[in-house]
Design a protein that fits this description.
Elements (H helix, E strand, L loop, with lengths): L1 E7 L6 E9 L7 E10 L2 H9 L7 H27 L6 E6 L2 E6 L4 E5 L2 H8 L3 E3 L3 H5 L8 H9 L6 E6 L2 E7 L9 E7 L1 H12 L8 H4 L5 H8 L2 H4 L13 H9 L6 H23 L3 E5 L6 H11 L3 E4 L10 H14 L7 H4 L9 E3 L6
Helix pairs in contact: 2-3, 5-13, 6-11, 8-11, 11-12
The protein binds adenosine-5'-triphosphate and magnesium ion.
């Protein structure tokens, strides 16, 4: 049995999520999530990571310090996982660590995830696989989304056509044809999910996020505003495509709201929920999947889940819990799986998703001590 840890801090910049995966044998279906842990990103670090999303003074020094600080939070999550699972660091083969995306411009040939991997390896005494998106971009791909390959491994069915939707800061879909089908697995980022919901909610209520979607539920969808948002060119782009805070940020909201009259903030929140529900729901319908399994923090947003269920019909919407996997753990587990792919020399990307020229081994390795 081998153990791998996956660590994820996504576009919401809310927390570092970690999952410990056990690989029972040679068969991928013996893969098991044996622990899950999450630590909030401290406010000062979150503000700095948010600030680093756009150009600013003294960026290089600030980015280096933020990368160190984030490695320290990652190390705390690793310690939590080891305690929870009751196992020693030496029993873990490697950590797959995503880092914090501060730029994502595949069309310009780069993506930047902040994290100091050597510091994390040193703190944990475990090898760290990082920078998991660069090789795919170097091969002409989007470098994102990477989760569909793992979704296919964990959730593909013999007979049923399925879709998996991650409602993180950004939403992404994986379309999983039945195992016997010659059709490739596909997937792409559909557009915004929690980043815009969180930004608007924080600005108007002071709360970090709209718990269960209750605040939005009291609002009314503004049809004209929704139509103007749906005209955003990203939504009409054909896959492969990926996006993030480079496009969907507070500035995007402000620009699109500037022209309008004064609006009730609750109505804007309700309209943002509808924007996510419609864009994700359309992707679900187009996928032809009979069932859609949702993961990520947005799975807890009851109002968003209701609106998505309405929009995705006739596809039936539930969470990955229905398949026995905690929706909060899926994305972190994907990075544990990607670490295993890297250590074993296997491809981590799906060219049919990212548009890369072919399968690539993803990630760079930081090792805590000599092997010989
Ligand atoms: N009870 C809840 N009600 C509503 N929203 C919630 C709830 N719990 C979590 N969330 C939302 O989920 C977000 C975090 O989701 P998640 O960690 O999956 O996103 P992420 O870190 O951006 O990851 P990704 O890389 O997949 O985009 C929070 O910022 C919040 O908006
Ligand atoms: Mg998160």
């Amino acid at each position: 049995m081998r153990r791998f840890i996956g660590l994820m801090s996504g576009t919401s910049i809310d927390a570092v999520d970690g999952a410990l995966l056990e690989f029972g044998g040679q068969q991928p279906d013996t893969l098991r999530t044996s622990a899950f842990a999450s630590r909030p990103i401290p406010d000062n670090l979150r503000h700095e990571l948010e600030a680093l999303q756009s150009p600013g003074a003294d960026e290089l020094r600030r980015a280096a310090l933020a990368a160190n600080a984030l490695a320290d939070v990652y190390a705390e999550v690793v310690a939590d996982l080891l305690t929870q699972a009751g196992c020693a660091a030496a029993s873990v083969t490697a950590i797959g660590a995503h880092g914090q995306t501060v730029r994502h411009r595949p069309e310009l040939g780069y993506t930047i995830q902040l994290l100091q991997p050597a510091r994390l390896a040193e703190a944990c005494g475990i090898a760290v696989v990082c920078d998991l998106r660069a090789a795919d971009i170097a091969a002409g791909g989007q470098g994102a989304p990477l989760a569909p390959a793992f979704h296919a491994e964990a959730f593909r069915d013999a007979a049923e056509r399925r879709a998996v939707v991650n409602l993180g800061g950004v939403a992404n879909i994986s379309v999983l044809p039945p195992l016997a089908s010659p059709e490739p697995v596909t997937g792409y980022d559909t557009g915004p999910a929690n980043t815009l919901l969180d930004a608007w909610c924080r600005r108007h209520t002071g709360a970090d996020f709209d718990r269960d979607g209750d605040w939005a539920r009291g609002g009314t969808v503004d049809a004209a505003l929704l139509a103007s948002w749906l005209a955003e060119p990203y939504f009409a782009l054909a896959p492969p495509k990926s996006t993030g805070r480079d496009l969907f940020n507070a500035g995007w909201l402000d620009r699109t709201l500037a022209a309008g009259e004064k609006r009730d903030p609750r109505d804007v929140q309700a309209t943002l929920v509808e924007l996510t529900a419609l864009t994700v729901g359309r992707a679900c319908r187009e996928s032809g999947a009979g069932r859609v399994f949702v993961c990520g923090g947005g799975a807890r947003n009851r109002f968003l889940m209701e609106r998505l269920a309405a929009s995705a019909a006739p596809a039936k919407v539930s969470t990955t819990q229905a398949l026995g996997v905690d929706p909060q753990a899926v994305e972190a587990a994907a990075f544990a799986w990607l670490a295993a792919r890297r250590i074993d020399g296997n491809a981590g990307n799906l060219a049919s998703v990212t548009g890369a020229r072919g399968p690539r081994v993803l990630g760079l390795l930081a090792e805590p001590r000599p092997r010989n």
